[in-house]
Amino acid sequence: MSGHSKWSTIKHKKGAADAKRGKLFTKILKEITVAARLGGGDVASNPRLRLAVDQAKGSNMPKDNWERAIKKGTGELEGVTYEEVVYEAYGPGGVAIMVEAMTDNKNRTTPEVRSYFTKFGGELGAQGSVAYLFSKQGQIVVEPEVSEDKIMEVALEAGADDVINEGEAWVIKTSPDSYQAVKDAVDAAKLPVIEAKIIMDPSTSTALEGSKLTSFLKLVDLLEDNDDVQNVWHNADYEEPED
Question: What residues contact 132, with CB distance under 8 A and at least 6 apart?
């Protein structure tokens, strides 16, 4: 089982995030605020904002919440200014990790993130130290009961790069530029979407097992539990441990 591509691993992480609903909402609202500040409050003409609002809707966030976040981003309402920070690091076993954060105080967030890696035998790297191992990719995960003919027809005609049957779900892969067109086609066909987002896809993988894997999973949990951390991307390849 690939720890960076298989839906079962994604699902495990998503379940952990959904169990902390408040944290999930906080992270999405930060993204909406920053997206609106950088690209304006019009969802139709701001792809980054549209993606964030889609995530808000998919998480059953009340409309008032995300509309208020847009207004904070555009300056219609007073709000906190967040800075985007990307940390590149090596974790247990040499796993490459990228941490995307949004913070109102980098002097707080950076030492926190560094301490997590230090605790589990990893370290922060210089800018560019691991980023070259990742590339942006659109990923749309669809419920498995959809027929192969149907999902292939919808996704590939809309410009998807690939459709993968991972047993527990269909995973549609797209380029970042084609993502929205494919997502719109999937929505128009009323295919049941589990999750849709832009991910950082690794070009290589690092196998983990035993104590290195245990340390890695604890590190990821710590990172994802931090309110300033938006996403954690890695190239770990592992068998999901038994519960």
Answer: none
